[in-house]
Amino acid sequence: MNPPPIQWLPVFYYAAQYKSFRKAAERLCVSPPAVSQHIKSLEAYLGVRLFKRNGPTLTLTDEGKFYYQSIQPMMMHYHSSFNEFDRRFNKRVLRLNTPLFIAQELLIPNYMHFKVIEPNAELRISTGTEYIDFDSNIADAAIRFGHGDWPELNAKLLCKVAVSPICSTNYTSSHIDIQRTLEEQLNNQVILTTDESIKEWRQLFPNIAPKEVVVCDSYFSIIKSAEMGVGIALGIFPAVNNWINNQKLQCLTQQMFEIEAGYWFVYPKQRSDNTLIDAGYKWSSQLFGKLPKLG
């Protein structure tokens, strides 16, 4: 017995996914009777019932569940392959996901420079606080802060970083005793973080005893809160160099603490020969390379 005609599979797939002939018809831009006829033909060919019909409600039979699970990887691969083809040969769109702070400080102000590198392509920048799942197909590449150890991705280093405590001038004058050691200065202060456990602080200052911990939703919120005098942030250098040079914030010490993390340009390994991703990396690398030095 040969497999059924392939044109029946998308009809069954969407009917099973939506549990509705009407919704499957809308998805496929055909009429509900056409969907119903295709399903009857498929059931007749296979010799089994795929759906239990109870008025407008559809449920899968055991055979239907098995068949749906069997064709699901093929249909997902079909869609992802088309999306990759469309990105590569038609729309010329690079979708780049990045932390909000990097988007605001670095990428958006230099958007037109990308057009110099790729004049016929469109760049779409999205932001978020979590690592995106590339399987969800919401981005082609991303800028991540971390250690670069993502086995399923190509990771190219954009910038190594160092960290040091920073705050506003007003916060320093009203809360900090500059005669004390740095560790003493940090105790009994308001600490700004995205992690309630202040893990990134304790790795540098194991005995830190903050007066209060303010949890922010992004690093951009941390820096803005520090600028407004809410508390002390852990500055990521050279990303925050402009804030120090423009005297929006100041360092509590000249000491910089080297850490293993950095900013990375990442993308799935199966997209290694994508010229738009290459252009995105080139653009991002140039921008990070032009970050100003302190002072």
Folded structure, characterized:
The chain is α/β, with parallel strands linked by helices. The chain has three domains: about 80 residues, Orthogonal Bundle (Arc Repressor Mutant, subunit A); about 100 residues, 3-Layer(aba) Sandwich (D-Maltodextrin-Binding Protein, domain 2); about 100 residues, Periplasmic binding protein-like II (D-Maltodextrin-Binding Protein, domain 2, 3-Layer(aba) Sandwich), CATH 3.40.190.10. It is about 40% helix and about 25% strand. The chain is built from twelve helices and eleven strands. The strands form three sheets. Strands 3, 4, 5, 6, 9, 10 and 11 form a seven-stranded mixed sheet that branches. It has a two-stranded antiparallel sheet with strand order 1-2. Helix 1 crosses helix 3. The longest helix is centred in the N-terminal third of the chain and has 30 residues. The model has no long low-confidence stretch (mean pLDDT about 90).
What does the main sheet amount to? 7 strands, mixed
CATH superfamily of the largest domain: Periplasmic binding protein-like II
Compute the number of helices. 12
Shape, principal axes of CA atoms: elongated
- Alpha carbon gap, first and last residue: 76 Å
Q: Could you give the order of the helices and strands?
A: HHHEEHEHHEEEHHEHEHEHEEH
- Percent strand: 15-25%
Q: Which second-level CATH architecture of the largest domain applies?
A: 3-Layer(aba) Sandwich
CATH level 1 name of the largest domain: Alpha Beta
- What is the number of strand segments? 11
**What structural class should be given to the helix and strand makeup?**
alpha/beta
Low-confidence stretches: none
Rg (C-alpha, Å)? 27 Å
This entry's quaternary arrangement is single chain
Looking at the structure, the CATH topology of the largest domain is: D-Maltodextrin-Binding Protein, domain 2
Mean pLDDT over the full residue set:
92
Helical content band: 40-55%
Structural domain tally: 3
